[in-house]
Structures
1.
Amino acid sequence: MIYFDNAATTLQKPVEVIEAVQKALLTLGNAGRGAHAPTLQAARTVYDTRVKLAKLFNIANSAQIAFTCNATEALNIAIQGLFKAGDHVISSEAEHNSVLRPLYLQESAGVEVSFVPLDACGRIDYALLESKVQDNTKAIVINHASNVTGNVNDLQKLSAIAKRHNLLLVVDASQTAGTLPIDVQAMGIDVLCFTGHKGLLGPQGTGGIYVGEHVKLPSLKVGGSGVHSFDKVHPQMMPTLLEAGTLNGHGLAGLNAAVSFLLETGVENIHAKEMELMHHFVAGIKDIPQVRMYGDVEASERTAIVSLNIGEMDAGLVSDILWEDYGICVRAGAHCAPLVHQHFGTEKQGMVRFSFGYFNTLEEVDVAINAIKEIAEEEQE
């Protein structure tokens, strides 16, 4: 089996992650719910994971990181908590449904939303985005990179726009956390939402949200907190404000080990390896007449995603052939990004998405290149 679906989840994890989860299952109690060894060990694990993530993202105060079950929960916390009726938000047509659907929900509650259209390569125009700022605009909510095209947004440009107009910059880093350097201070990020199971190389069921100390967010969920138990109101200090109920200690133990691996290996080195694989793939298929790629595959700054179609073949059929005849795992369909597919006119055909990861090899990519060539030849006959 060859796994090229890393944008959905990284299947191949560092061995340290597996070992950490196994150990945690045997040793961890419930963090913050007692003073015995198992619960204290859980609390230490959670705390240490925050500290390592703060180092990875250059966050000054690790307490401003709250853990969630994924990026979708983090984005819902941000989008449902920051805006009220009469506010205006700017986003883009490149967003995942984890951004779109919370925004649509807010629209139904009286929040105005403007979506910046994409160019022929699926990129946003920063001047056009800034032109959409209104007197009631409160924030820019946008991804760091598209999960369909791999196009990367320039967060420093977006931050500059946000600062000029006193807006918040809310970033969906689902596709870049762990694969591209992220510095919340240098990039001017006010809220960062991320998942643990993709580029961060951790287990599923982990994720988080960074909230700048100047940003005021209400709790999306309330309940058990382990502290202030006699108060009728959920504790208002971070990170407890956004962490009602038992945390996924076992998953966070795995995430802890994964972030250690990233810090030791270097995100820049991981990105360079993934780009080598992606560019090798593009070079091998770009001259096949039937192959159509989407996004700016020649950009110097992007993620290791290549979405394509072969002639008029249904993307799902291509994906099935890749799996059944070549043992290659890819993702076909709409990728939970409907506006991207509407932009490219692929609502019915879908796209075949290859997403390369650090543990893939050039030899595996060569198998995929050959597979695309053979499928294209058969489609032409």
2.
Amino acid sequence: MNPDLFKDCILGKRNPNHNSDIIVEKIVLRRVRLPLTVPYRLSYRTFESFEPIVVEAYGMDSGIGWGDGHISPGSSAETREGGWSFIQKMASQIVGLETVEAISNIAKRMHKNKVAGSALIVALEMLKKSPFLDVPEDTRLPLLAPINGLKAKEIEFEIESKLAEGFRTFKIKVGKDADADLARLAIIQKVVNGRATLRIDANRAYDLEQGIKFASSLDPTGVELFEQPCASEDWEANARVAEKSNVALMLDEPICDMADIEKAATIKGVGFCKLKLKRFGSLACLGLGLERVRDLGMEPVLGDGLGSEITGWMEASVAQTLIRNAGEFNGFLKASDRLFETPLQFENGDLVLPKGFSPRFDRQRLDHLTIDRVELAAA
């Protein structure tokens, strides 16, 4: 990961505060456990809680910046223990520095710990009052909802409940067995009956044969896209599935920087790229990445479904002017606890950001959910 890219994104002409700088006075790091209301099932793991690293950065006479990142075991080579170790070491080295130098130092060393490094950089961006977090007017952003039911009656009940809540885009997880997945999809399509859009996500679980079988056999009725059929590093397998697919493919896990976006644009049948704040390293780089996806003729999708309320708020803020489809920054709806005194608003399928929204944290609740805490201050 090129540190100059981070400096260009964060300190470039698009950021009106690029000439200001702040000394990092103190950093508080937390490991937080957020129990889920119901288990969240992916092809590679079932989560019963999210465990993000939460960063609190204090600037000399300039307020507080927050950041967080959920390291998902099995999603990449980054581990929770490795990320926690990295962020403690990195934070200890940047306390007392100006934010420009601090961000550059993090960017040079975060290639193996992107989620942890991103949490730290984002907190410094907020400290510098990133314009990407401004909410100039009341904003409503439609969210997607997962459909987890396996049996027909479960599926019908879940879909009708989600429709009643206002959701109009559903995500269907597949990847175990193409025939069983196709049968379940057919049930979902029959129940939905044109009342919602469907996104299908294999989470990298198919091999090439199963991926092609599913993609070439699925009924495209009501289906917006098919996400990440094969392993993230196997660009060739995903390209071959895209060639045979009855719907446009979306790449997710391989999309971590501008070069990945450029590569995705060369693959026939890839119509979407999904970006996440925790992979792109900064609010500014995320914004530029979303614009680049559209410049290259694809459509960007944004959101970390495993993110906390902090991630949900930040990704929604970036999405205000850059996203025109259902957001996947819905992790905060899966957790049984919130981190903000005034929780993110959800109404009739939409995340609602009131004009000027900036959250106040519920510190008592945050302390209750914290399983480890480290504080580092400038000498």
3.
Amino acid sequence: MQNKLKKVLFWNFYLIILTFFFLFLDFVITKTFFSNFYKTNKNKVEKQDQYWRVKNKIYHHDFLPNINVIEDNGKFGKYNFITNSMGFKDKVNRNISYKKKDYRIVFIGDSFTEGLFLPYNKTFVGIIDEKLSSKNIEILNASVSSYSPLIYFKKIEFLIENGFEFDELIVFIDISDIEDEAIVYKLDNFKVIKIKDKKKIQRKKNTRNYIDFLKKNFYISYSFLNFIHDKTIPTLNKSKITEEEFINFIISDKHTRDKWTINKEIRNKYEIGIANSLKYMKLLNDLCKKYNIKISIAVYPWISQIYYEDLDSLQVSIWQTFSNKNKIKFYNFFPDFINNQKNLNKIDYIKKVTIPFDTHFNEKGNRIIGENFVKRYIEFETQ
């Protein structure tokens, strides 16, 4: 019995010594060979933080004005990101007067309307700008990723109260806005803030600190643990799956952000988001009426809505009803995607109109919205 105990103690002691020796060796190797590698990669990450996306005290976040950079989005490619003096995404750096000369239309929406991963001229707002420029219409894009109806309202209110003049506002409401209004943003003392889960934030902070400590001091151990994590915990690693597998994940109920229009159980969780979206769009509509600014609403599908042919989508019916009630123009781009799949396999069609391994529209998808918007806009104006 004593011999067995001695053996157990010996092997435990041996493993402890071996572990400390390995960690010491790892530490020496990391500091000798990987120190510069860590700093270089850390700097790369910091450079990718996109300094031109900044906090705003009133409406949460915005772009810096007069930016002209080549934005590198890894596998999504590089593109020229430009803003004008107002901090709006644009084709060139230029000064935008608060006082309008020609008829001025402002577009606002989230990342889809910003035209994420695309230069201005390939986004649907840029395409609309090009098509309507001959009619002496000035087009401006106030959209930024992760905007929602609360931010649409607060940003437009801010612009108007500071003397910015425009004739018409086109609001492109995204399907994900409902989730944002339910669990991401709230109004606090007339300012937009994020709904914070302090415990969750602290857990994330602790995890980041732990990972940084490992990378900085024990890079071999970090690499080994990271390898074990990837092998044992299933994650959506875009570098290890096909584009078809990515799309299948997005259209599954595991991806909930866009499923409230399709899945009743998910929709029930977002009822408050629907109510808040309607509330802030009503405030935005009233604000525009007060200043004699025309307002229109536009909607478009996500990948899931295209795949499941969600033509009579709640996203459509909610905002069409709102538009009819408030006597404003409504643009519905669901049929332009869903009815034009022709004889293509649904997955193949989705691949044709979206950026690979992403939910946003590519140049072709943006062109579908841009060209059809111009046709309907002209039709509306001639009625």
4.
Amino acid sequence: MANELNYISGFDRAVVCPCGVKPGDIQTKRLKSGMECFPVSGCGGGSYARVIFNKNVIKEMASLLFSGRFYAGRAHELLFFAKNAANIYASLKNLPYLKDAGSVTIYSYWFYDEAAAGALLKGCLEKHGKRVRLVSRAHGFDIHAERAKYGYLPMRSFLFKNCDRVFPCSFDGGAVLKKEFPAYADKVRVSRLGTEDHGVKYGSRKKFRIVSCSYIVPVKRLNLIAEALGKADFPVIWTHIGSGPLEQEVRSAAAALPECVRCEFKGAMENAEIMDYYKKSDISVFVNVSSSEGIPVSIMEACSFGIPVVATGVGGTREIVREGENGFLLDKDFTADEFIDKLKAVRDLSDTEYERMCKKSRLIWQDGFSAEKNYGEFYGVLAK
């Protein structure tokens, strides 16, 4: 979201409302002229009593019961979702700027409880004669119910009914939403995210270095990279950027790798530091082996420099990684041998073929994943 803030335009006033702000949190992003920040705190607090008899909650609960999808975990998830939405709405309705606004566009970055809060605010403002539009992005976790806790995303019909437009960040996500909610297919319009242009630093194979960049959590499956590199029979450097709860486990696995594999764990880095690292380092290929994704921003950033990619073809990843053009794709359930074979495929390209792959990576980013291009188009639509 931080990159996107630079491109907001077409409105008399823009108010950014970060949710879940805790006491002591400080604003780190400087907003441009004409924009203000209104932090929303206490999203998870309060009692379920305020929402348990809400008509929309009762309707959703009844739907779960009559469809045979009800059980305690989902009921709790629904109530937690509704409570968060109510808390966010309680803060938003006090925005001082709303009283004098003739028309309001409410934009939720996630198609989840923030969007539900937007729906409540929309209803309130419309009762006071305001012209209101509610739009929401949708990414990955907020599209795929099978990835969610208890295999359930609450109040989807309520969100679709109240949103004027839903913008999934990939064509893969758009297809899922249209298939699952055909009655609202005309509200779905793909609008990709984008990354900034930090210049070009094409890939290099002076030393064969693979780089991964992510939070170290189960879905990112960094343990599979470590396991696969155990079969490497050629010199390779693996650099990982990012930390997380499974870091020690991955470090331990990496420590047992053969001598031909050297591992570097950079820990958590600010985005500016990561971009500087890409700009100054010789990187042969970027790797991502997640079990699920939208379109990974980390891959967009690597492609923007002209670095080839090896990645699992999950979610919208196939929209940015094109087999044999700017990298190679793995099946979701790839084997260690298959991972090594893809690395060798990059290593064994002729210099001409490798240079072509690097340049193609940059071109794919320019055409489809540039922040300037994508956000300019997105806010052009919103401002109409």
